[in-house]
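Weekend entry, working from home. Most of the wet-lab plans are on hold until the incubator is repaired, so I used the time to fold the two sequences that have been sitting in the queue since the last round of cloning. Logging both here for the record. First:
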Amino acid sequence: MMFGDRLDQLRHVPLPAVMRETGAQRDHYDKAKWHTPKGDISITGMKFMNWHQSRGGGGAIDLAMHLNDLDFQSAVAWLQHHFSIPPDSAPPPALRRLTLPPPDRSLIVRGLVAVLATLRKNIAAFDQRIAELVASHPDGTLFASLPGAGAVLVPRMIVAFGTRRERYQNAYEVQCYSGIAPVTEASGNSEWVHFRFACPKFLRQTFHEFAGHSIGQSEWAKAYYEHLRNDKNKSHHAAVRSLAFKWIRIIFRCWKDSKPYDEELYLKSLRRRGSLFAGTLGLATGAAWKTVAGFQRLSENNA
């Protein structure tokens, strides 16, 4: 047995046994109290406390040193003399390391490939069924006419609006419900506008993704996005949300009237109204933005 193991065994000799070896008397009423020449000592588990001397400690070695006025080595010798310690024993056998065969990585890969193949097959079946439903849907042609709405976004846009025209009375209800419209809060003289958090997240993501895809397919959408980014210093996502806000008004009107979107018709409308983007897109109009006293206003005479 190693010396450190012997010390651990000696420290854990029960303290009442040490008390009895020194001739201490246990109190008749308080079983934790012992009367010794050093004064009354209380024992709690492996801790002791001499209340007369305000000294305490832990373990049998400390108690033997305190009761017998011994140093550490002498207290160890005293405990070895009064308490039997098992003789040295042979060390326990070393643990045998269990050697496992290396994992068959090819088997793992084949299993994962089989899972992926099954998933791809099922996904393809879902895609085919969705395409069939879109082709037969009464609003399939309407939403397919939107620039940037492909095989993935058309079904999502159909679901976003649904078929019940009476559900929404105006485009603003769609903008708010989907989370595209910002929230304005006011308190006293303070007012601030922030991102809308309480909304169907996937629905908001649908409009956001469509607006982002429309930038590369719609002339006016690209012009509006670049205006927000370059002239208004908006972040990419803030500009896309603002574009989605406009798109919802356009799509809502098409949806209410059950008419497909017509890019050329909308560009003519911009020209007729003298929109900023009519000039940007090279449409025939004399209206343009003009800076007056540090502000911008739409003017027919931009000479």
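Second, folded right after the first finished:
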Amino acid sequence: MATEKNMSCAEFNEYVQDKPEIDKLIDDKTLKLAKKGNIILDGTLSAWITRDLDTFKLHLMAPLEVRINRIAERDNIDYDKALDITLKREKLEKVRFKKFYNFDIDDLSIYDISINTNSFELDNQIEILISIIKHYIKENNIKKL
């Protein structure tokens, strides 16, 4: 949605601070897709929005310094600017999600598993995730993929 409005993620987060109707649109779309099944959803609130559905909830994280370096490289900006933008965005999201949903996004207990993406090379992360998902499918007797 940020792209549709010609905004960066940081600008969009500031824009939606007092616009719960935008979060509602995103939530409705997320739930609709989740209910169809056979989909991977990526978003800060995806696990929370789908918490009452039979879904596998995966949390990927990395230490702050690693995330900032990745963002700076991806967006072609310097470290300090990436740090400033990220900390502001995370603060705004934390406040907004608590205000609109009463969700504590620091509470990771909603996830089935959390992986530190700095602990493994990308190829190993993929291998680990495939293995975890295969076990989840088998243990939960999931037939459709």
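Plan for Monday: verify the second prediction. The first strand starts at residue 58 and ends at 61.
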